[in-house]
Each structure stands twice: as C-alpha cells, then as structure tokens.
C-alpha cells in the first residue's frame, strides 16, 4: 500500500544538495499508485512537487506541501525496419537510457549523453545539448491527469516544444505527471558534429569516421571537463538559459563586443552563450559565501557546502543584474525555483 511520510528531508533528492524538508512525501513505483494517491481528495488541493532526478531545481525553502518522487522503472524496445521505438519508465536515469541505446547502436541520443536527471523530466524541459534536443527523438509520452485520475498520451505536437520549454511548463503546468516516454530512434545513424567542440575532440583522438559510441564518449568527456559532478559538489548543471535575441539587438551588441559568442537561432534570431556573458562580468570561479560559480564553467552555480537555497538564488540574481548592466541582455533561469 502507498505510504505517505511526513517531514522528510529532500537533501538526497536534489543535486544541489539543499537541505530542505517536505511536509509530506510519497514515492511512486507504479503508475497505478498515482490513482491511489489522488483518490484521497486531501492531495488534490495541496501544493505539489514532482521529483525525478532532482537535477533541475533549486529549493529556496522548506516545501509546505506534498513531494512526489517518481520511481517508475522499465525499458522496452521494438524495431521496425530501421526504426527503433523505446518505451521508458519516467523514473529511469536519463544517462542509463542513453547508454542502453548507444550500446545497441540505436542512434539519436548520443549527443545527449551525461545530462543529469530522469527520463520523465526530459520532455518537460525539452532537454538539449550539442545541437540535439529531446524533441528530435521524442515520439510520445503517457501522463496522469491529476484532476480526472485518467491517463493521456501526448504526441510531439501536443507537447508544443520550444527552447527548454513544453506545454507541461506553460498552459498545463502542474496538471499532469509523466509516467513514461516513448522515443523514436534509428539503426541508420545521422552523426551530428556541428555544435560545440565535438568535431575538434574527435580530430584530436584521430577519429575520422565516428560511430555513435565515439560521439557519446566525446560528449561525455567534454561535459566532465566543464561540469562538476553533483556527487562531489552540489549543482544543477546549467543554471541559466542561453538567451535568444533579435538581429537589431545582436548587431548593436556585436558592434560593442565583437567577440560575443553566438549561434544562429532561426530567421533573424541569435542565441548567445550565457556562460560567456557571465564570465565577461567576472563571475567565473567566484565564491560568494557557501555558493559560487564553477571554476571551469561560469554557467554553473555550485553549493560549496552548507549553502541555503536563498543563498544560491541571491547569487543568481546578482549575476542576472550584472549581465544586464554590461550587455543589456536579460538572463532567464533554466533551473526550476521551488519556493
């Protein structure tokens, strides 16, 4: 029977390592337990926090509501000609899924190697890295509607994916809990080397005809060199989104700062490297109290030990202000703020 615990520390359930408590806590190992949980009306009108890997959140204070940890496991796959469909429980670790697919030569996820978090969170955030986004390999997801106690399947179109956005963060925020995700991969790899340092690192390794395993290893190596391991120092990966600006603003900015790091982002749009902007403001590797920015990547905020959520949030606000003052560009937090 489903157990509801009280006053549970969420420190081990968030990669920042923030020691905040949840008033109530439930762990879900099977989708039927969601129906059981919400059959009790007291949980319908209480603040809820759905936890996966806890890698994209900042707990600013204790959570006075119900924290629900999704631990639904399982990976099933089906092959049809060159197409591979992989159905995955929301509680699976994202990188375990990537390794599962790369080991079997199921292509499409290799650029998304070593992203922290759970499978269930991946469509909510439309996670992405090195020129690939979740939507590029997404087929559908199954989700529980809290208000009705029923399940619904969402297509790619239903999810309204955008840059680090989906319908689950906008008009349907808080209404559904994802229980499984289906991916569409291929046995015919289309190697993507266009973004970041992947191609150069492959050259450095003497690899001229890379496999998806080669790409996965290189991406993992690059990420390890830039990003701290949450098991050794608390962090949530990239704290800010890379801002997207229009052509007029970009040309003015480029006139002032010719070295501004940028990437095309559609017609008349340019994506700026938030890490570069932050570094230019002198934040890279800086320590402020118990928190700070990572020595190898200014985009990552870290908990040096004992930091509160308020401390981390305050630092992020200072960074936003300084980038806006210097560049006229407003950064947005990528991490979900739980307050």
Architecture overview:
24% of the residues lie in helices and 30% in strands. It is an alpha+beta fold and 339 residues long. The model has no long low-confidence stretch (mean pLDDT 95). The protein has 3 domains: 66 residues, Uridine Diphospho-n-acetylenolpyruvylglucosamine Reductase, domain 2, CATH 3.30.43.10; 112 residues, Uridine Diphospho-n-acetylenolpyruvylglucosamine Reductase, domain 3 (2-Layer Sandwich); 105 residues, UDP-N-acetylenolpyruvoylglucosamine reductase, C-terminal domain (Uridine Diphospho-n-acetylenolpyruvylglucosamine Reductase, domain 1), CATH 3.90.78. The chain contains 9 helices and 20 strands. The chain starts with a strand and ends with a strand. Strands 6-7-12-10-11 form a 5-stranded antiparallel β-sheet. A 4-stranded mixed β-sheet has the order 1-2-5-3, with no helix packed on it. The chain has a 4-stranded antiparallel β-sheet with strand order 13-19-18-17. Its cofactor is FAD. Belongs to the MurB family. This is UDP-N-acetylenolpyruvoylglucosamine reductase. It comes from Mucilaginibacter phyllosphaerae.
